[in-house]
């Protein structure tokens, strides 16, 4: 068996092992380089010491020329003295030594050039002193002193250069000693750290290998469980060769329990036998040829096969998959699908009748709108990225609007309210429509409308419908004119005073004015009430207000107060207070600084936000409980998936056996009821499978890989080949892109969308599905979707089927939501919900649009 897809890839720990070996080599090379650097540093320090010694010899040399004994020795000899020759030779040797030791030091070499000149000058001056011979003692003495002064000056210049040489070598000595100390410390530390790191990676690699070994065992057990519990026949065959290496038969190597359920063949008995003996129809019905093709061509072969078991025809959808040594044959029982195809013809006629009735209903509704005197409009909400309603689109308006506004319904349809009726936005009517949609309740209002220099009044009611609003307006101009005289009495001032007095109480808000110079504050009546006092119960000051601050919040309150006083700038902040009755409340304060009577005062408001904060705490607790419930539900889903399906398989098995053995004895009504049971079990099994598929789409899945959607489309077409052929459907596609995603989820997405188009095909024309692709910018995406990329792949699935009403465009993606009865079309309302979850798992967006009787379009946006 090929378990390549079951266990985890070994690339990770192979890379870790290579990294460990590379790190060991790096450790050895680093240690070697550190030792070499230490040796080089030691050699440099030794060289500096040699330079020190040479400079010392230089000092000793010119110091000798500065001594009186050496000078007198030169004067005593009439000819060039032996001491002077020896002195010159020693000087040349010292300079040559210094030149050799400082060859790599350009600055020292530059100093040695003038030093050599000074030495030659000093030697010449000593030579003159050595050859000095004057008869006059007084002249001889003066000449000798003058020559000695010249020699002293030259020696002073030499000493200056010598000091510069020595200072430079001292600096180099300090720098080289520091480098030597650094290399001496870092060499063992670096080697030790890198060695431990390499050891850690080796241990980590071992643990990874061991963990993958355990995972492989678990995967093998998991695969055995799948093979034992699947509803498909799964057999593995290996070829039998003749003397000429030609395949003449196949041997059954593995067979699962479904052979017993569907074909009455014991898996243990047929294992090891020839396929021609166990499945004789292989040789007569072309199955052997299909297996040969899969084996020789090393490609998957999909075909349909009809088998007669106990006198009953059973249909199978077979897939022959080549493996390393043989062929894996997977057969799915499609008998119910074949039978359902026959039932579809009956449903088709019934649907035609219902379509005619629907057309009659539409005509009746159209006549009602024409006969009533009310203006009826329906708008669709237009939202921004934050979900806020910013406009409405006109979807319907009856003909009663023409005498009022002069607009023709068909001309203003699908236009925005802000363009057609801008006065409604300015008059605040737009806000009432938004209120009706957001609060899900009807809103009644009166609105004036100016036309032909005449004002007309309308009484309107706005009611939410879907994500939009339906408005019904009635002309009440005459009623309004009769009641105006009764309304225009002193209501304006009374209403305003009432609103101002009750506003703070209703909103739980108090206001204050704080004199920054005297620290005296003026509190509103409701502020006193919020503190548990009657209005004006105590003189209000900033110091008095501190008594109400909760002790635990006092430090934060004082800090915020200090910031306000220092910066003369207010910020919104929340703290707790303790009322007179001991009740703890949360206050949120904000204000601003103004100048009043040449004084700086702060005016602001305080709001009691206790309920909202407590609601947030309850919300957090509720979210925690919800996460726990989801975890428990997921655990239950894993356990129940097998327990729910096992009884259904047993029911199907026994139904099949009862029907085969005793079906002829059933009455006509008994066979009818028996068919009902069979269909109910099939629907239940399909529902469980789809629910499991929906729940197993993991939104946290991150192991995406690069996949070619053209290959995904081909796989989906192969899986649906029979249905495409039966419906004579035409698929028109262009080249699709490569994306990063999960292969099996993309296969399920394409399969569901294509299957959906085939299921809801038109009754009077050949099914046609166009799959188009283009790359678009994020700005082209529908409103309400938060784009994470600049570019997106847009894949459009457009069919010519029965379509649907646009108002159901969002409803069809919800779980268990169906637009048709189960007797009309098969399914359980989960397929499109799975599509939506898959697209969202890939950080994409899916939407639908369509018209009844004109086909449907599903648009998928995936990150580019």
TrEMBL record:
Residues 639-864 form the Histidine kinase domain. Keywords: Kinase, Membrane, Phosphoprotein, Transferase, Transmembrane, Transmembrane helix. SMART domains: HATPase_c (SM00387), HisKA (SM00388), PAS (SM00091). Its EC number is 2.7.13.3. It is an enzyme of class 2 (transferase). One of its GO terms (molecular function) is phosphorelay sensor kinase activity. Residues 512-568 form the PAS domain. InterPro entries: HATPase_C_sf (IPR036890), HATPase_dom (IPR003594), His_kinase_dom (IPR005467), HisK_dim/P_dom (IPR003661), HisK_dim/P_sf (IPR036097), PAS (IPR000014), PAS-like_dom_sf (IPR035965), PAS_4 (IPR013656). The chain crosses the membrane at residues 185-207. It catalyses: ATP + protein L-histidine = ADP + protein N-phospho-L-histidine. PANTHER family: PAC DOMAIN-CONTAINING PROTEIN, PHYTOCHROME-LIKE PROTEIN CPH1. This is histidine kinase.
